[in-house]
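Why should sequence recovery work at all? Because a backbone constrains its sequence more than one might expect. Tight turns favour small or flexible residues, buried strands favour hydrophobic ones, and helices have their own preferences. The token representation captures these environments compactly. In the example below, the structure is given first.
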């Protein structure tokens, strides 16, 4: 008489019924939802990173609309309104605000309040955490760009490009710029020593770069030494690329080298993307520095 087959061990049965831990991508997607809910629950963050470019467009367009068009040709044609002129730079600035300012300050706060230390003690992968941060910056930047374009068209009568090639250019500029700025934001989060100093460290950097990178002031009117400094950083190149999408072709004469220089735009953004990736990889910690 044969003996009955052995039953499965209790531990094996328990393991079979225990749900597996979510994968890196699944956990990252869940983190995006949590980050978005947290983002839109803080009014000051929404204002200074989401609505600020829209507010600046309204201020500049309203303040200078009585001065006529910008960049008219000798025959009086080819000019654009001040709203249309400022739109590309503000789109670039919006990407920087969403990708650099918000994540940098947010990560510092979470680290110094102990949230990252608790997350580090869980099975959550740093990759999933970064997916959550990157996801919320992409979503908010897309919504911000759509709102900015909508306000420009509806409120100020800006005419958007009709050439599909220009929108394709906008897509790769947006994607490359968003990736670069997000990685730089994560890397910059290692600089502030405390959550109290995060805003004091990050916001001045972002604000100064906007003024010297052709967002609020015409880049060619800046002193050469200031142009050289701005040309080291990615916002200048992202703003230049955005102008190539939304401004007439003859505006390229005011750029460095009297051309849009899209190859240099892509190269500089790609270099800064690699810099941000390397610095973020070697400086990110779950726990704050002693």
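From this structural description, the recovered sequence reads:
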């Amino acid at each position: 008489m044969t003996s009955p087959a052995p039953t499965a061990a209790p531990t094996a049965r328990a393991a079979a019924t225990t749900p597996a831990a979510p994968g890196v991508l699944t956990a990252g997607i869940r983190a995006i939802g949590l980050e978005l809910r947290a983002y839109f629950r803080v009014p000051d963050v929404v204002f200074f990173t989401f609505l600020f470019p829209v507010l600046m467009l309204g201020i500049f367009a309203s303040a200078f609309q009585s001065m006529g068009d910008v960049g008219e040709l000798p025959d009086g044609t080819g000019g654009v309104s001040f709203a249309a002129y400022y739109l590309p730079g503000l789109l670039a600035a919006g990407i920087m605000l969403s990708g650099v300012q918000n994540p940098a300050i947010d990560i510092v706060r979470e680290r110094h309040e102990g949230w990252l230390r608790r997350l580090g003690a869980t099975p959550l992968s740093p990759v999933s955490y970064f997916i959550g941060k990157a996801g919320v910056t992409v979503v908010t930047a897309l919504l911000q760009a759509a709102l900015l374009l909508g306000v420009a068209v509806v409120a100020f009568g800006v005419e958007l490009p009709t050439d599909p090639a220009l929108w394709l250019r906008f897509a790769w500029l947006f994607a490359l710029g968003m990736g670069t700025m997000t990685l730089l934001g994560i890397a910059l989060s290692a600089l502030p020593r405390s959550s109290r100093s995060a805003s004091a460290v990050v916001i001045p950097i972002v604000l100064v770069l906007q003024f010297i990178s052709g967002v609020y002031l015409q880049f060619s009117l800046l002193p050469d030494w200031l142009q050289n400094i701005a040309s080291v950083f990615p916002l200048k190149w992202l703003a230049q690329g955005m102008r190539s999408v939304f401004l007439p072709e003859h505006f390229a004469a005011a750029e460095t080298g009297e051309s849009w220089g899209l190859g240099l735009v892509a190269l500089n953004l790609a270099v800064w993307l690699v810099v941000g990736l390397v610095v973020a990889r070697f400086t990110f910690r779950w726990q704050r520095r002693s």
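A few observations help interpret the result. Residues 82-112 form the longest helix (31 residues).
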